[in-house]
Write a structure and sequence with these properties.
Layout: H1 4-15, H2 22-34, E1 38-45, E2 51-55, H3 62-66, H4 77-83, E3 89-92, H5 93-100, H6 104-114, E4 118-125, E5 130-138, H7 146-154, H8 156-166, H9 184-194, H10 202-211, H11 217-224, H12 228-242, H13 247-260
Antiparallel strand pairs: 1-2, 1-5, 3-4, 4-5
């Protein structure tokens, strides 16, 4: 039976359909039902970047924007499972990590730093080949019980219908913009400095920054005082690390990074 506060939250989610407030209201409803410390929403396409939609992270939030969305999502067991045919449903990270063979580097170098001790994922299929992923995190080692997972699974038809109604054509290719300062010049400068941080070497980051500004190999070589062949090698490696196959695809990755960048995140 639905409690009055829960019913009020559901009504607010329905009222928010079609508006920018929908992800935030959906998160409030889900957090009340699931009992988690933090929540993250992203969407995936099988041949595209992870698209940021919403988060309420309090600990090491910069890892999301500087590393996860800059290509590290490809090592996430959920993302890997989707590429292998994962179906709509509710899954624990522990189960998927075992099935997918979670990368030791992902576990030690990234996931541990987030502070999450337990994670549950809700997978919803949107239009075409796009998937909505809602991650529930707990900062204490208190597993999501089978009963909690079953309760969320029972709500999946309603949640799927709401999300497909809000995103009838999918979420699109551009990220949502999280709350933050609106100084665009500062935001662009920080985005250029941080693009690929945690994924690229210092020189690869420099080359990536110049590529998204429209410079070609020869111009980059002249500016960095290195050979054009060296630029090509850096370019090939950074494309592979960021999951891009062209300068246009790299710019698309940067555009989503720019939208989600927060100048308050430390640069070091």
């Amino acid at each position: 039976m639905m409690t009055e506060p829960d019913g009020t939250l559901l009504a607010q989610v329905i009222d928010a359909l079609g508006s920018p407030a929908f992800p935030r209201m959906l998160a409030k409803l889900l957090q009340a039902r699931v009992g988690c410390d933090c929540l993250l929403m992203v969407s995936y396409r099988h041949s595209g970047p992870a698209i940021y939609l919403f988060d309420n992270l309090q600990h090491r939030r910069e890892l999301l924007f500087q590393q996860y969305l800059n290509g590290l999502y490809a090592e996430d067991p959920f993302c890997r499972a989707l590429s292998q045919g994962l179906q709509e449903g509710v899954y624990s990270l522990r189960a998927l990590a075992t099935a997918q063979g979670m990368s030791p580097d992902y576990l030690a170098d990234f996931y541990q730093e987030t502070g999450w001790q337990e994670e549950l994922g809700l997978v919803i299929q949107l239009a075409g080949e796009q998937w909505l992923m809602i991650f529930f995190g707990r900062l204490q080692s208190r597993p999501f019980t089978p009963a909690e997972q079953t309760a969320l699974r029972m709500q999946l038809p309603l949640l799927s219908a709401l999300c497909r109604r809000h995103w009838p054509a999918g979420t699109g290719s551009l990220a949502q913009s999280p709350p933050g300062p609106a100084n665009m010049a500062e935001q662009v400068a920080v985005a250029l400095a941080n693009f690929g941080r945690g994924r690229l070497t210092r020189r690869e980051s420099q080359v990536a920054s110049l590529l998204v500004q429209g410079l070609d190999n020869d111009m980059i070589a002249e500016q960095l005082r290195i050979g054009s062949g060296t630029v090509r090698n850096h370019r090939k490696r950074l494309y592979a690390k960021l999951g891009a196959d062209s300068q246009g695809a790299l710019f698309a990755r940067f555009l989503n990074h720019l939208i989600t960048v927060n100048p308050e995140f430390p640069e070091e």
